[in-house]
Write a structure and sequence with these properties.
The protein has 145 residues and is mostly beta strands. It is built from 1 helix and 9 strands, in the order H-E-E-E-E-E-E-E-E-E. Strands 3-4-5-6 form a 4-stranded antiparallel sheet, with no helix packed on it. A hairpin with a 6-residue loop joins strand 3 and strand 4.
């Protein structure tokens, strides 16, 4: 433990001398210094009620007071928005962020909501079978070199 405290003290001293990033250090008589640094911040368009991040860190979910589930990338880019029932008061997610779990405190219900994104793939110039004017293209990736 003594080594960790000394490392924190050195980090605080170095941070004050050479860092241009704002951070704060707080110490009391009975605790070691605590160092914090703001990594990223963005404006949420509605009042947030709950928040969860997928375990793999690829998605951030924010439940808002206007019954919306906002889905963000970790850099703050809004990927999508899903309407939810007015009684939804808590959210959670599975490890990969593919399912969001909703708790509705008005109807006393649990809902598992599958979340996926449609991605357009440009197949211009790619080999194909069938009609070039087909309304759907099925792409099969078999060569991973």
């Amino acid at each position: 433990m003594r080594f960790k405290h000394r490392s924190i003290a050195v980090a605080v001293a170095c941070g004050v001398l050479i860092s241009s990033t704002p951070f704060s250090a707080i110490a009391t008589a009975n605790t070691p210094a605590l160092v914090s640094e703001k990594n990223i911040s963005w404006k949420i368009p509605y009042k947030p009620l709950d928040f969860v991040q997928s375990v793999d860190g690829s998605r951030l979910f924010v439940l808002t007071d206007n019954s919306r589930l906002l889905i963000y990338e970790p850099n703050g880019t809004l990927k999508g928005s899903i309407p939810v029932d007015k009684g939804v008061s808590a959210i959670d997610t599975d490890a990969r962020g593919e399912n969001v779990y909703l708790i509705d405190s008005i109807t006393n219900t649990f809902t598992s909501l599958s979340v996926d994104f449609v991605v357009d793939i440009d197949t211009t110039g790619s080999p194909f079978m069938g009609s070039a004017e087909a309304p759907v293209t099925i792409a099969v990736f078999t060569d991973f070199e």
